[in-house]
Every structure is written in structure tokens, then in C-alpha cells.
Amino acid sequence: MRTDTDSIARDVAAVPLLETHGLVKRFGALVANDHIDLAVRPGEIHALLGENGAGKSTLVKMLYGLLQPDAGQILWQGDPAPAAEPRAARQRGIGMVFQHFSLFEAMTVAENVALGLDDAPRDARVLAKRIRDVSAAYGLPLDPARYVHDLSVGERQRIEIVRCLLQAPRLLIMDEPTSVLTPQEVDRLFATLRQLAAEGCAILYISHKLEEIRSLCDRATILRGGRVVAACDPQAETARSLAALMVGSEFRTAERRAADAGGDAGADAGAPRLEVAGLSLAAEAAHGVGIADVSFAVAAGEILGIAGVAGNGQGELLAALAGERLSDTAASLRINGEPAGRLGPSRRRRLGLGIVPEERNGHGAVPELSLADNVLLTARDRLGMVARGFLDRPAARRYAEKVIAAFDVRCKGPEAPAGSLSGGNLQKFIIGREILQEPDVLVVAQPTWGIDAAAVATVQQALLDLAARGCAVVVISQDLDELLALSDRIAVIHGGRLSAPRPTVSLTVDEIGLLMGGASVAAVH
How many domains does the chain have? Predict the structure, then answer.
């Protein structure tokens, strides 16, 4: 907790730019925000922390006018200032950069910026000059004439930020802004945010990356179960102590196998369980990314991490590995030595493959079906839940109960519809459903996306333990910290091409970041 009395005195002396008093928001019987008190001062970078479902998104949506509180008060410079709608919030000086971008790929940067401005200039040349001036002033280079579909994810985020900056915000709300950026782009973003804060702009910053919070933020407010439970100076805390405040108990992180810690576990791995050779697939969407000449192998007991900025072919690679899209040749993919490039998902599962896709609802699970029925979708053959053409529903129910208990899935039981679970709990169920089948190969995309700190440790430990039992694991993730913690080797996908996997211990964050940004392997060495 903060102990610097001089810092505390300066904070008390500063007049809050924005305050909330007793803010309440209910959704039926659920109290998402329970009497929230918050104060954000000019020129500070203020972190908003909490587990999945703690109430962070609900709170900032009320500040931005997307939701209306059921009770309590929002003050702007000491005066009551309810945000009736986003336009009113923007006019007051509040800007928000959402986690998921709202851009039209077939339009230019300038056209996308104009759509988000309340008073866009009629003259396109005037707007283009304003975009160039603001982007240059804050180190966020943008070409107003470029089309969005030609831009990297980092460049697309710049559009969202510049669009906010053109309205001269006094408070900028950022929701998970670094989740799709390379380390170098993160550094550039942080420099911009520090510059804004130095000019007096307040920043309300939401992130699950606790080391980022410690590096960037001046103060932190921590939510748990919809309530404020703590306020602190994050720079005086550790990532572990911040996580403990978020979850309300001693926080445990995943621990690598003792034999692997600090070394190249892949060097002692077993026989190859998954082999990919010259795999290529054309893009399905007009502005999509195909994969080209992808080759790698993963051995028993090994975890291969695949890093990359979103939109560089990860989805296409997952579809090719899962059998949702078939290769031209059977030998382009082998599972336990068996050619599988022309086999569909069910036949690949019989060979020992498990899959956890990025999208939970509709891809990883059918929302309308019960958890027990969702078990049958992927486990029926491997666990013998079909006999003489009949499904063994009691067995599926027992297996669902086992997953619920092992992964602490918060739900009403195995008959609960998958769509009734929160995103984090559904993710835990889907991952548990695959891991407890003891697959020979597991391919998992974004394994801890959207789940709370305690669940992250549970899932990561389960992946490490699965590999220790001889499974070959492929983790496709945008979270570089996660890949560094889990992987024996790491490869980077960019523009549909995969770099050669390298031992994790031989890589630096900067090297991985350069590869994520499109640098050649030769340029990185």
C-alpha cells in the first residue's frame, strides 16, 4: 500500500477531474456495481483492476454514457454531470478507446476518423492535416489516405487513439490497450500516454497485465464482486500482491516442471506427436490472411508457443490443425506419425488431437446445449460415450461434473446451458473438457483470454502438467508473458508465415517483438 505521505498529500490537494459517489448498476438480480466511489485526478494514470466479472467494464460504460446508473452520482470537476449518452461524455472531454476496434476495413484512415467525430471538417484536406499533425505530435504515425485493411493491428489502434485525441479529451479511458500490440508498440503507446498525462490529461487504464500496471500507473483502484476493495500505489506493490488484492486470497502462480525450469525442455522431449510440413492455405475472407509453407514439429512432453499480433493467420492455422480446413496432401500434417492432412476433425480426434478454439460460444461450445451435451461434441469417441449407436448421457454428465470440479467452473451444474456461463467460466470448462481427455496433442488458442488471475494460474498449471504427462501442446497466444512462462520453444507468425521455432531461453522480448512486427529472422540476429 502507498506509504509516501508527500505523494498522498499532493493527491489530496489535487481537485478530482472525475468522481463517482455510491454508483450502482443492476442487471436483474445481479449487482454489477455496488456503491462505487472513484476519484480520477488531472494528469494521473489511474489503473482500474479486478477479476473477470468484477465490474470494470460496467463502470467505464457508465462513465462514457453507454449505460445509465441505477443509483449514485457522477461528478465532473465537482459538479453533477450524468453522461446521458456517449456524445454528451465526449463533449465534456471524455474519450474512450475500446478493446475491440470499430473500424471499416474498406475505408481509409481519414474516413474512419471522420465517422467517429462529432464535428468532422467538411474539407477532407483539413481533416487529413489534423490527423497528420496530431499523430506526429504524439508519436503515432498515420497516413490518412491508407486503407484500414492494409494496416497492422497496432496501426489500427492508433486510429482509435488519434480519433479520441482530435477531440482534445481531458479524460481518456483505455480498455486492455496492449493485448494486440508488439512489445515495441507497447513502449510507443506508453510514451504517448505519459506525454498526455504530463499535459494534464487523466487516463483511466484497464489491463490484466500487472507488470504493465506497475510500470505505467500512478494509482490503482481494485474491484472485486462489483465493489471497491482497495486503492494503492501499484509501483509500491508486486504483481503477486496486486493479484492477491484482486482475488481476495493468497495468489499462486503456475510452476514449470522442476526439470524444465531455466532450461530447454524441448531438448529432452520424446518422439514427435504433431508434424506439419509445407502447410499452405489461401485466405477465405477478402481481406484475410492465408498461411504459407508452415512447417514445425512438436514432441511428446513439449510446449510450442506461437506468438503474433492478431490477424496474421492464427485463425487459419488453427482451422488447418483442427481439420476444419483440409490440406491438399495428407502428409502435410501427421498426428502420432499418421498422415492426417485430409482427415476431418472427428477422425483427427480419434488419432489423439484435442482443440481449444479462440471463440468460445458457437465454436468451442454450443450455447443452447447443456454442458453435458457439449461434452459429447468432442469426447464421445475418445471416452467411449457411444455404444451401438446410442449416446451414453449419464457418462457425459459424470464427465461434465468432473470438469466442473477440477477447474472450478461456476455454474448450476452439468445441465446448465453453456450460454448461461460467463465468458471466463465457459473458457475454463472448454479447456478442462479437452485436458481431462488426456489427448496426445493439444492445440489451444488464447487459453487465458478473459479469465481472472486465479483461473489463469489454474489453466496454465494444467497445461504444464499435461505436457509433463507426455502430451505435445501448441499454445497460440497474443500474450507474450504467457508464452514465455509456458513454452519450451517459440515461433512467431506474421503475414501467414511462421518463423523457425527457437528455444525460449535463447530469445529476448525485443527479438520476439521484432518478429511479431514483421522483421526477418536475419534482421533479428
Answer: 3
